[in-house]
Structures are given as structure tokens and as C-alpha cells.
Amino acid sequence: AWFSCFITTGMGNRHSNSLKRREIQELLKRTHFDELELQQLRQHYNTISESIRRDGVIDRQEFQQALGLKDNLFADRIFQLFDENGDGIISVDEFICGLSVFSKKGTLEEKLRFSFNVYDVDQDGFIDRRELFEILRACLSEDQMGLTPDQARVMVDATFREADVNRDGRISFEEYKGLIMRNPALLKNMTLEAVDSFVS
Fold first, then answer.
1. Which residues are 167's β-sheet partners?
2. Strand pairing report for 170-172 and 126-128
3. What does the pLDDT look like over 122-165, one tens digit per residue?
4. What is the reported pLDDT for 7?
């Protein structure tokens, strides 16, 4: 799974222009990319990591700029999910593993888990109304769809009516998965054509 992709073998050398053989072997096991694609993604990583600060790592500001995200909770959540070890930067392996999920080769289960984790802000394994409301508002502001708080609450209520099968006031991963299986268009943003264009 993408979230177990962090490699503690010294990967992500801050100033290397290419991946080492050992790094490649580890990433081949953990991602959906081939060797050439991994090297191409390393070059994209280098470009992004040098875009604001020439420090060889991607910080939140560089990540946000590269993805064209506004400064909001949605951007924070995406950054936090890529920054698996929570050190405030995205290493090359975290970058590549995160992008693997968004590629056409990413599995449905990986995309489901990642998108669920975006909404599960407190990481308790459930999406509650507050989390859904906050992320929904942030996502819609990214798309410049200004919803009033009342309109967002209506969307949250409708989502909970459909997804919260056991009516416990929160959405589990299995309930979320059921919602997505009934409404597959909800996952359309989990495959980014740009990722595949990086490696073609």
C-alpha cells in the first residue's frame, strides 16, 4: 500500500540527481513505476525541490505551488499524506510513492485509502461530520465553487444519509468504500493525467 511506502534505507538523498540502484530496487517493489519512470520522476522531484529553496527537498510551499493548490486545509491534508514520516518535507521516495497512487496504474484500493485519509483529518479511522464539512469546503474553494456553510451542511447531511449505513454518526472505511462503489465518479480526481505525462 502507498502509505507503507516510506523507506528507511537512507533514500531521498537531498542533492542526488538520480536514483541509486538500491533506491530503484526498493521503489520498483513499492510503486507502479518502471525504472525509467522512476528516474524521470526523480528529475521532476529535483525541479520542484529547487523551485523556491535550493535545499533538495520539497517543503509545503513548493508542494503547494507545484500542485497549484490554495493555502487551505485540503492542501495541508495532501501534503501530510505525502509526508508520511511527518518531518515537514517530502523526500524523493515519499514523492514517488504518493504519485504512484495518482497514476493510472494506481489500484482502486490505494485510491480509496488515500482519499479516505484526506477526509479522516484526526486519523481515527472514521470520517465525522465536522471533518467532511471542513474538507468539503476546502475542496470546493480549490475549485472556486463558493458554497455557503448551509449549502455545505446540506451536502454533508446527504452524504451521511447515503454512506453512514449503521447510523453511528461517522463513516468507516468500509462505508466510504461502499459510497464510492455506488458513485465511482467521486474518485475521478484520484487519477491525474499529469503524473502519467511526467513519465511519457
1. none
2. antiparallel
3. 999 999 999 999 998 887 776 666 678 888 899 999 999 999 99
4. 31
Q: Across residues 8-24, what is the average pLDDT?
A: 65
Give one DSSP letter per residue of the chain, joined into a string: -GGG----SS---TT-SS--HHHHHHHHHHSS--HHHHHHHHHHHHHHHTSSSSSSSEEHHHHHHHHT--SSHHHHHHHHHHSTT-SSEE-HHHHHHHHHHHSTTS-HHHHHHHHHHHH-TT-SSEEEHHHHHHHHHHHHHHTT----HHHHHHHHHHHHHHH-TT-SSEEEHHHHHHHHHH-GGGGGGGS-HHHHHHT-
Confidence label for 193 from pLDDT (cuts 50, 70 and 90):
low
Beta strands 126-128 and 58-59 are unpaired
pTM for the model stands at 0.84
Closest CA to 35 of 14, 48, 19, 17: 19
**pLDDT of amino acid 138:** 85
Pick the more confident residue, 81 or 7. 81
| Residues 34, 28 contacting (CB under 8 angstroms) | yes
